[in-house]
Amino acid sequence: MTSSRAASLASPRTAYLLGPVLFGAYGVIRLLDGLDDVRGPGLAWTSGHLCFLLGLPFFVRGFAAMRGLAGTRDRWAVSGLWLAVAGSVALAVQFGVDIVTGLMAADHAEMARLSDDFGSLPGAEIAFYAVGPMLFFVGQVVLALRLGALRKLPLWSPCLIFATTLLPFASKDLMPVGAALLLLAYVPLWRPSASRTALTSA
């Protein structure tokens, strides 16, 4: 990979695109995997989870760029970034475990048992399922609201991001819709001026 291509992949604009696209891909594959009313193990389960895992670094890059737009010393933005990063780590562990258990298990029942074995470890349920992943969404909303308060995002953008965070909790089948809303919410961050500011401040 050339240095220019690597720089393009690491740019905020690429992050604002690929993060939601890979999130949406996971949502679509998840829907297809559930057509037989049984999700995992198998190719769809593994590929869908890999899409989400591959999307997480792009989300983190985007969050860092949002922090840069607010200012590297802005307390709200810094707090939002660290919350989102902590949530990203928790999600990475959760999805990594799902992939490993899917590869190890012969059927859905065994996969569920292996997943329960991991969840029963001290602190695992809170850190990687109940609380940890929530920080990903909370941190993103904090960042978006801060940029809205600083008038670096139009009001509708944080509102869309907030709505996106709620959709999976209403129904995980709505994740593709959430990804589309997230892409729309990120449109104002695609401005060349916003990308340059984020790159120099992040």
How would you characterize the overall build of this protein?
- This protein has 202 residues and is mainly α.
- The chain has one domain (11-201).
- The protein has ten helices and no strands.
- The longest helix has 30 residues, at 75-104.
- It is globular, with a radius of gyration of 17 Å.
- It starts with a helix and ends with a helix.
- Residues 195-202 have low confidence and may be disordered.
Question: What's the SSE blueprint?
Answer:
Elements: H1 3-9, H2 12-33, H3 43-70, H4 75-104, H5 108-119, H6 124-130, H7 132-149, H8 156-170, H9 175-185, H10 192-201
Helix share of residues?
Answer: over 70%
Radius of gyration: 17 Å
Q: What's the number of helices? A: 10
The main β sheet shows up as: none
> How does the helix and strand content classify structurally?
mainly alpha
Strand content: under 5%
List low-confidence stretches.
195-202
Q: On the 0-100 scale, what is the average pLDDT?
A: 90
Shape: globular
